[in-house]
Design a protein that fits this description.
single chain; Aminopeptidase; 8-stranded mixed β-sheet; about 30% helix; globular
Length: about 180
């Protein structure tokens, strides 16, 4: 049985849970979620749709990282659809004290309900409990024009530490990103 939390955001009942081996059977739901973000041109690193084989490989690799205590991964579901994900991956070698936010993504229609803030808080707590060795900081990169995300990260205690010029391609342009850290 999957360990999960059921919370209400707005008028929607949302399940928040960890990634499990059972999720390999529903790789198509993850693919649909990812491809919906790509289709809307969301401010994520991915800009090409993924096929089922690619999604299955991503999930399998992620599960191996989770098993080895090098990544934590949360899923939000509503009406049996994936509507959000969040992950933190532990860096290696001399940087193994750093957890990197691999991303937080919430499907259009479920944003601005508090789900992103809740998932961020939960993924940080999960990283502190499950990554080995325990991270001493969380690092993330955010598009300089992603004001809602920057506000959220600041509320959670992240501080801007660098501006990376022309760090990401978005809508045919090179734009800056902020590097932000949260000391734990």
């Amino acid at each position: 049985m999957r360990q999960m939390t059921i919370k209400k955001f707005g008028n929607k009942k949302i399940i928040i849970r960890k990634l499990t081996r059972e999720d390999l059977k529903i790789a198509d739901k993850f693919r649909d979620f990812t491809n919906s973000l790509v289709a809307e041109n969301a401010k994520i690193a991915m800009n090409e749709k993924i096929d089922l084989k690619g999604e299955h490989k991503f999930l399998s690799d992620t599960l191996n990282s989770v098993k080895n205590k090098k990544r934590v991964y949360l899923i939000a579901e509503c009406d049996e659809k994936i509507i959000g994900t969040a992950s933190i991956t532990q860096l290696s070698w001399r940087s193994n004290h750093v957890g990197e936010l691999g991303g937080i993504a919430v499907k259009d229609g479920y944003r601005r309900l508090g789900l992103g803030k809740y998932m961020m808080a939960q993924i940080i707590e999960l990283a502190k409990k499950e990554l080995h060795p325990k991270p001493k900081m969380i690092r993330l990169f955010v598009y300089i024009n992603n004001k809602p995300a920057i506000r959220l990260y600041r509320k959670l205690g992240f501080k801007k530490v660098a501006k990376l010029p022309k760090h990401i391609q978005y809508k045919g342009k090179l734009i800056d990103e902020f590097a932000m850290i949260l000391e734990l």
